[in-house]
Structure to design on (322 residues):
């Protein structure tokens, strides 16, 4: 293997601390069985955040309607389980296929216009799908949601339990699988091209990078990953409602990436973990004002800087000090 190939593949290799993080994630449902549902929700949200980071952190495309793909994946998996086959694996494949097709169609809309235009187009797609899900109540359940979704055992062996341990391990496993796939993909020359497009689109075009095709591919892949996260959500909760398309879900996703950082896959995971834990803890203490405290946390984070906030001992170092 050449030195160039080695340097490209190096970021895809797991470090020891990364392996420890995933080991801890798999152990958590066993150590904290009463919080397994929260752990499952964090894993699903982390996967959802990774999907947005593909288009925001690696290509610079801002989306306020990413919940469109999450919601489509949720309804696709839930409808498939209810009317065709309750096997979770098949349901995820269907969610992946449906949202890949939707993402490929929507990718045509991000090739034109400015960032503001893309914001409105992506948001509009989520609102359209939400209204369709509301009007097609004979299929989706409308405002009452799609109820009576019964899931079969994972891989034909592991039944979903009341504590949510199986759901947590299932969600973490799928999140790890897609994390590895995205990590390998972004460590390739394609990932380097994406970052070149993000940094300077005109320069990337001048050196022969096909910008439009790269944007279409990454947007389609991001939609597919978001659809898998939505499918996991419907399978682990046994329910799909209009809330999966809501603007709040897309906005929360942006906040997670603000917390964890964009342009590296661990940013989405870190942001999801911090945001969900803050939400769970603060809303239990003050249900009416939890958004105020999370907003205050974000203001402090942005003002101080993420690096200093994570490593507070750097606050007292002088400029230029080691």
């Amino acid at each position: 293997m050449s030195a160039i190939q080695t340097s490209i593949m190096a970021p895809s290799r797991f470090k020891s601390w990364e392996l420890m993080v995933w080991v801890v994630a798999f152990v958590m449902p066993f150590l904290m069985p009463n919080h397994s549902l929260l752990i499952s929700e964090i894993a699903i949200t982390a996967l959802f955040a990774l999907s947005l980071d593909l288009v925001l952190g690696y290509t610079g495309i801002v989306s306020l309607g990413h919940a469109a793909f999450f919601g489509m994946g949720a309804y696709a998996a839930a409808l498939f389980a209810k009317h065709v086959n309750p096997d979770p694996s098949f349901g995820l494949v269907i969610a992946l296929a449906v949202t890949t097709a939707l993402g490929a169609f929507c990718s045509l809309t991000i090739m034109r216009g400015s960032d503001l235009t893309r914001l409105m187009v992506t948001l509009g797609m989520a609102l359209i799908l939400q209204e369709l899900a509301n009007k097609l109540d004979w299929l989706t359940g409308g405002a009452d949601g799609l109820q009576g979704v019964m899931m079969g055992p994972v891989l034909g062996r592991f039944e979903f339990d009341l504590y949510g341990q199986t759901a947590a391990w299932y969600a973490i496993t799928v999140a790890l699988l897609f994390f590895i796939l995205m990590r390998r993909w972004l460590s390739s020359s394609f990932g380097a091209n994406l970052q070149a497009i993000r940094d300077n689109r005109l320069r990337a075009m001048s050196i022969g990078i096909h910008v439009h095709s790269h944007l279409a591919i990454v947007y389609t892949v991001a939609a597919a990953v978001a659809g898998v996260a939505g499918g996991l959500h419907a399978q682990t909760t046994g329910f799909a409602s209009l809330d999966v398309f809501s603007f709040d879900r897309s906005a929360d996703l942006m906040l997670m990436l603000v917390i964890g950082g964009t342009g590296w896959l661990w940013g989405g995971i870190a942001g999801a973990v911090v945001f969900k834990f803050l939400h769970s803890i603060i809303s239990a203490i003050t249900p009416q004002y939890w958004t105020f405290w999370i907003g205050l946390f974000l203001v402090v984070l942005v003002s101080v800087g993420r690096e200093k906030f994570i490593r507070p001992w750097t606050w007292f170092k002088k400029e230029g000090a080691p």
Notes: The chain has 15 helices and no strands. The two ends are 36 Å apart (CA to CA). Residues 3-246 form one domain.
